[in-house]
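Sequence in, structure out.
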Amino acid sequence: MELILVLDNIRSCYNVGAILRTAEGFGVSKVILSGYTPRVHDSELLPHLRDKLDREIHKTALGAEDMLDIYASHEIFKEVKEYKNDGWQVIGLENNIEKNLVKLSNPELRKKLKNKIILILGEEVHGISPKLYDLIDLFVEIPMKGKKESFNVSVAAGIAMYGIMCL
């Protein structure tokens, strides 16, 4: 199975770094940063800003940021649509929505997954940008047992990558 991650509007450098470290561990083929997600090694930024973001991301990525194929997209809707047209399945990690929602623990999920998947992770509080909803083939939810409604996005990313790639 081949997996591409889209980090859309993730706010925290630490979350980005933790996701990158986990993605490298699972052999993710590519990570696309979109929206206001902090970007690593961004040549478009002034050097002092680029260095600051790189240091912050490195604190949790611990070098994974240099091992992955990572790039920023300024037209994520168009880009994901092109991948989809090339046969990639688009999955959104979300909760509390009604549309095409499957629990990660559902045994039927395995039958629904294709070999080439794009997993979209959204902003820590508000989730995936609704403008991307129309591109998403399937929404996956991590079942919660406690009183909280969601996990931290970096923790959720790890659970989702494991659930999609290993179960």
